Please model this.
Amino acid sequence: MKEDELKKYNGKNGEKAYVAYQGKIYDVTDSSFWKDGEHQDMHIAGSDLTSSMESAPHKEEVFASFKVVDTLEKSPQKSSKEETHPLKTRLKEWYKIYHPHPITVHFPIALHIFAGLFNVLFLFDKNEVYGQMVFYSFSIATVMGAVAMVFGILSWWINYNLYQGKSFIIKLYTSVLTLILGAIGIAIYTYSKSSVYEMDFLGIVYHLSIFATVATVVILGYYGGKITWGDPRTKLKPSPKALSDEATHRQKVASKLPEIPSTKEVFDIEPYIKEDAIFETETHFKEINIQIAGPAGAGLNALATLISKTLKKEKLYHFITSEYMSRVRGGMSTTFIRVAEEPVEAAKWESDIAIILDKDAYTHIAKRAQNAFVVGDSSFKIDHKNFLPLDVKNRIKDIGKIYTNSYLFGSLIAMLNLAFESGESAIKEVFKDKKLEENLEAFQKGFEDSESKSDIAGFTRGLKDNEGFLNGTEASGVGFISGGVNFVSSYPMSPSTGVLSFMSKQASKFGTVVEQAEDEIAGFNMMLGAWYAGGRGLTTTSGGGFALMSEGMSLSGMSETPALIYLAQRPGPATGLPTRTEQGDLNLALYAGHGEFAKALLAPGDSDEALKLAHLSANLADFFQIPVVYMSDQFFSDSIRVSKELDFDKLEFANYIQKSKSDYKRYKIEKSGITPRAVPGFGDALVVCTSDEHDERGQITEDYEVREAMVEKRAKKLQKLREFALAPKIYKRDTIAIIGWGSTKGVLKEVCNKLNLTHIHFSWIYPLNHTHLEKIKEFTKLIVVENNQEGQFAQLLEKEGLEIDQKVVSSNGFAFFADSLEKRLQECTKEMK
Amino acid sequence: MSFDRKNIDNAWCPGCGNFVILKLLKSVFEELGFENKEIVIVSGIGQAAKTPYYLDVNMFCGLHGRALPVATSIKATNPNLTVIAEGGDGDMYGEGGNHFINAARRDIDIVHIVHNNMVYGLTKGQASPTSQRGFKTGVQVDGVSNEPFNPLSSALSFDARFVSRCSVTDKDHAKDVLKQAFSHRGYALVDIFQPCVTFNKVNGYDFFKENSYKLEENYDKTDIKEAFAKSLQTDSFPLGVLYQKEGESFEEAHHIKSALFEQKRDSKKLAQLLQSIM
Model:
């Protein structure tokens, strides 16, 4: 900082107390030697003490115990001003050689005391010799006192810049008083010598002035010594009172610094711990599980969309997910559709109705359709007890083969015993201007050819007016836009590309800049550049791409540039299973980036969390100036689940960018560790971003003390994040608790409810808050369920001090199915109960 | 307006060609009437990449090789800024090669300044992408066997609309080339010959003086064929603007007119979006 800025840190009115010595700035706020920013009554905080050290009774070692906060920038104007006072410079040199004040000041002190002592003798024996001795020494003392005073004032100006400390002011008044007393004494002796002997009124005044000067010179000597040598008493250990004063002082200082807003302020979710089971969900509810199998390119997605729209019109809760091979054409995929009375958010392995689009599709789902009605073209000749052959090929021969799906859709609507009109309006909505007539005809034929195979008519239709359906990609995307994301740079990679496309589709409406980067490294660095320049950047990727971004994570950490990453996980290692799901990149995200720096990991478990966490993640990155990784996976992003309307006014949108003033410093050390962030072109300051270790200005430094200060500054953010963390949601039912994170929320919610087990869901993954974890220690058995092989989240919990009794893991490329997970959890909790 | 950054500790060797470039940039900024606040220099890692620490402008000193993507998004996020990506030949042509291709193709309005000294300085003397064949180093002990990278013909093949080269051995000419680059709307490459006095004893001031020439007065910089022919001359390197063409820059193509931080969030629009897709 510059000298002018340093002046502000004078330790008064709650300001910090900084002093400079040989180019470094030390924080002396908390020192008992620097109460109220003053040291020994002669040095004030906010100044450069380099020159004062020469005359100090201690050496520079005293600075060793203080923290270096910055380097001092000598302001050029100041030095030029100094040069305009050549007299002062010359006087200063002369003064340093001859020290006229200490030389002269001792004479009047000694002589005044001498005069006082002899005056006592004189009062006992009014001898003229004594009387003259007293007068002459008193007169010489007064004259010498005037000389000493001149040099004293000179010294005050040269050495202490006329600093009006208590000692200086006392000395000034006392010396003037001494001089006046001297003049009075001399005048009385000169004009009325007899009074001195006769002890009339003037005589009494004369003798009193002799004695008074003894007192004044003692005071002068005392404060002179104090200025030069300091007060030894203050060097003793500070009293408890002093300490408590210091604490209040520190508190005063703290209250002036920016404080971290609470979770509630930034985010419309209370950091809560739910003690009770909050599901209105029944343990037993009616449901139908439909699976549609066919090759890629056969229109499975279109069929799923039609069904979802119909079910929504019928006010039926449903959940749709899919598994598919990494193929553009061919291969084999399945779409799982689960219709239920309750808002389920997981699929089942076993189906009730299986629709197959070609012959091989049956082989693909045979194990999942043992008790199902299997629907397909009669030519497939399927050997299954419940095969319902349809004459699809012949029936739509005249319309065209491409209308097979609309025919099958009609057939399914009939089998589900749903209203023809609901299906018809879905067809009209989807095929508005794409061969609507033909699609309607095929749909009608399919509807006519099938009969009801379900009791769906008896289902409670609970879908509320403010509810609808979103896949994880859409929910995340809307959340990011809500969080102010206005710049996206990504390299496409399954299963993250959905968000990139979504943001691109909405770009013109929301003024978002979307650019497909040449690689993930560019994607990440562009995103950082956008944050630096005042935008809110996002990059989307999956494991392999994220691995390439590690160095960028580290840059975000060091340069304190916010970063936001949408990480949609898929099974690795390497290319792994590109289109399938896994929660296998937790460790990658936790440890991404070399060096030590704070980051936050979030993982949504349902639509509401997706919307709100995506919104929060942008605010978090901006506020803490850290990388925030929002972790999704293929299952989460592709699945369509229930969602609620949201009042976006309630999601606080906070912009933490500050218009800069000319004295702005990008890495200024604040108590909270968070320096307000300015951006180039907004305000008066230049804004830097530095990858090397740097000082407060952002200039490269290798000074170990500055390094320590900066390391501490960055480390504080991790601590603040821990305090800020959202609590896990605890749905308490039993002493056995099942712990999950991110996308397993839906399946665990259902299974734990059914098995009457406590469910603990984490959507704030890292860094964890220990108060929250203490709550979890109350449960007798902890079982972690996660979609990977090593139990990465369980490992993290163990590292944070929880004892995990069992891990229930799966890494076969599928998400957990409600029915098969129920069996596994029943099995492993049987012995515990 | 002064572009000197105060109280700095310059890390370059005495006699380094970088000092000339630093001085050139200061005078170009002054002569073009730039303000400190409107300039952002983005750099990576290397001796050349330290330049922004010595200039009193905004700076983003990031990762090795990654200056171009950062510069790209800064310009796209706030088109009012004058953005420069600056670094050495290893930084820009080696580590950041892919970004070089794509920054040129993307045609964002930035000035890309590459200090070309044909050697790695920061890592103490290994071969760089532009090192000449036979150049011996502690790693290339028998001399470099790779064909040197040709940034100019590469940039031309990437369809860059402004391709230039200059040398610190001719300051007035270099200043003129830099000024043209700053006046160009779109991606502009300026490759600057700049001797490394410590680690490259072969390609020093004399080498660049003796092995380069200024493009003729009547040279047609709009002729791509001529530009390619010139770019391939390596016995004596041509100096000047080899190629310049009018066109549409990235921000123009994307209709980015104001800084993104001025955007306002619209809750109603968000609610509408959510409703429409639910």
Remarks:
- Confidence is low (pLDDT under 50) at residues 76-84, 232-280 of chain A.
